[in-house]
Each structure stands twice: as C-alpha cells, then as structure tokens.
Automatic annotation (TrEMBL):
Gene3D superfamilies: Invertase/pectin methylesterase inhibitor family protein. Residues 1-20 form the signal peptide. Belongs to the PMEI family. The lineage of its organism: Eukaryota, Viridiplantae, Streptophyta, Embryophyta, Tracheophyta. This is Pectinesterase inhibitor domain-containing protein. SMART domains: PMEI. Residues 20-153 form the Pectinesterase inhibitor domain. SUPFAM superfamilies: Plant invertase/pectin methylesterase inhibitor (SSF101148). It holds the Pfam family PMEI. Keywords: Signal. NCBIfam families: PME_inhib (TIGR01614). GO terms for molecular function: enzyme inhibitor activity.
Length: 157
C-alpha cells in the first residue's frame, strides 16, 4: 500500500507536468495550479516563470531542511530516521532540480521534483505502515503541494 501511494503521487505529478504544457500569460502563473492559494503565496507577485520556478525550488530546500531538523529533534526512532533519510534524498533531488533548471533541462528538473514528492510521501508511508499518526504530516503535505506547484510553474517557462 505504501508503494502504491508513492506511485500514485509520482504519477499525479508527472501527469500534471504533461497536461500543463499550455501557454499561460505570465501574470497568471497560478491559473492552472491545484493549490492556487499556496501558489500565490509562494510567488507573491512574481510574473516570470523562470524566477518563479527557482523561488519555489529554493523554498522547498528551506522547507525540507526545516522538516529534517524537526525530525531530528523529535527523538530517536526508526520511522523518524527513515524520514530524515528521505529528506536527504529530497534535498539532493532539489539541488539537482535547480541545476537542471538553470541548465535549461526541464525534463530532468521535473523528474527531480517528482522524486521529492515520492520522498515526502515515503516518510508518511513509514508511519502509515504502523498505523501511527505522523508528526511530520503537515510538513510533508505542504512540501508535496509545493513540489507539485513547482512542476506546474516550471512547465510554463
């Protein structure tokens, strides 16, 4: 079940990228976003898709670093350790996404952002396997939504 959820989220993110290939007026970058209020708060008036994409990736780096720090402070536990490992994977993917985007490799950027969604989802799946609530659920959900928004905006450039 855990793998199915991860697969579903990666599939959703990939589908979003493929279906978002339409031309959008620069002033309306959030028009096709699934999470419009989040998109608007992330972009705060940014109209350039390239600037917006980099801002979202940098925001995700900050969010992921914060979530990793929080997981470390919550104590020693195998489930939390799994989340920390997944946050490390996400940070690596985010750095690769930023490099790819700056190098105009949008496909690799999308793959790396999708990998982040899978990393956040895997953290949640670790707790779900034990029927336990995740202390990181709010953070993981927001990061998944932010990454999905990044996938959309990156496609607009």
């Amino acid at each position: 079940m855990a793998n199915m959820r991860s697969f579903s989220l990666v599939f959703l993110a990939t589908a979003t990228v493929l279906l978002a290939g339409q031309v959008v007026v620069a002033s309306d970058l959030c028009a096709g976003a699934d999470y419009k209020p989040l998109c608007k708060s992330l972009l705060k008036g940014i109209n350039n898709p390239a600037v917006a994409t980099e801002a979202i990736i940098n925001n995700l780096i900050r969010q992921t670093t914060h979530a990793k720090s929080l997981a470390s402070r919550l104590g020693k536990d195998q489930k939390l350790d799994a989340c920390i490992d997944n946050y490390d994977l996400a940070l690596d993917s985010l750095n690769k996404a930023l490099i790819a985007y700056k190098g105009n490799d949008k496909e690799k950027c999308a793959i790396m952002l999708s990998a982040c969604i899978a990393s956040y989802s895997t953290c949640e799946d670790t707790f779900a396997e034990f029927d336990l609530p995740s202390p990181l659920e709010k953070d993981d959900s927001r990061m998944e939504q932010t990454a999905a928004t990044g996938l959309l905006v990156a496609k607009l450039d």
